[in-house]
Structure formats: structure tokens, C-alpha cells
Specification:
Elements: E1 4-10, E2 16-23, E3 26-27, H1 29-38, H2 52-65, E4 71-75, H3 80-89, E5 104-108, H4 114-124, E6 128-132, E7 137-141, E8 146-147
Helix pairs in contact: 2-4
Length: 148
């Protein structure tokens, strides 16, 4: 099996990370730690253990659409404080968001239409897929399979 690598750019912090998080049938602890730090709540720097399956969902989605560039991450882990604040100022934020569980990301692939990302992620049938065409991103999570 091929190694699984992700190249990420954080929309809010402009941080960049390229990491091979899985190879030889196993996740790499050091790579997961780097991903956990990269995907922290950038408002209060809170960290959590992100669900490694989320990285697989993202990796498989890139393969389906044939994308090899950097993935733009708009949001990943949110602390309860950050999520409560966002929910108070935006109708689109769930009060019990999967982001607080460390199993959700809002992403886009520059140069790829968001509907293509949505279709690829839905084909995986591995969790929630939210489609936000006006805002130009797709939400991926490893919660129950559902679409919106």
C-alpha cells in the first residue's frame, strides 16, 4: 500500500505542513502530533487528538478528484468556547459541532470546484459531508454518514 501524505495550508494562520501520516499499514505518531498542532483552534491555541480516520477521508477525497496540491484548511478543531462564540454570531455553526470532537475539517482544494470535492467525499460514505458553495468550502467529518 502506498504511503499517505497530506500537504496543508491553514487559511487563518498561513502555516504550511506536508506530512506522511500513514505507511506500512500504520499511522505515524509523530506525524499525527504535527497534524494535531496544525489543526488546533487558532483562536485560543487549544489542541485535541484529531481522529486519524479524518485524514484518510481527506486523502481518499484528493485521490478521487485527482488533486495533488495543497489543501486549504479553513477550520478544524474548535474548543467549546470558540464554537459557542461562532454559533452565537453565525446561523451556520452547530452548537454540538463535530469540530469540537476533533473529527471535522472545513476545506477546499484550490482550482477544484467545491461540488467535485463534495461528490468525491460522498462517494466514500465515511462520514458527514457539508456543501457550502456560496462560501466555497466543503465540511468533512467522521461522524454518522449524512449530507447537507
Amino acid at each position: 500500500m502506498s504511503p499517505r501524505s497530506l500537504s496543508l495550508v491553514h487559511f487563518n494562520t498561513q502555516e504550511v505542513l506536508t506530512v506522511t501520516y500513514w505507511s506500512n499499514g500504520a499511522y505515524h505518531r509523530d506525524a499525527l502530533d504535527k497534524l494535531n498542532h496544525f489543526l488546533r483552534d487558532n483562536r485560543d491555541n487549544a489542541l485535541t487528538e484529531m481522529d486519524p480516520l479524518l485524514f484518510d477521508v481527506l486523502w481518499h477525497t484528493t485521490r478521487i478528484v485527482g488533486y495533488g496540491g495543497s489543501i486549504e484548511v479553513l477550520s478544524a478543531f474548535r474548543s467549546p468556547t470558540t464554537n459557542a462564540w461562532l454559533a452565537s454570531v453565525s446561523r451556520g455553526v452547530a452548537r454540538d459541532s463535530q469540530h469540537m470532537n476533533g473529527n471535522a475539517m472545513d476545506i477546499r482544494f484550490p482550482g477544484v470546484a467545491v461540488y467535485q470535492i463534495r461528490q468525491a467525499a460522498r462517494a466514500l460514505n465515511m462520514g458527514g459531508v457539508g456543501f457550502y458553495p456560496r462560501s466555497g468550502f466543503v465540511h468533512l467529518d467522521t461522524g454518522p454518514v449524512r449530507y447537507w
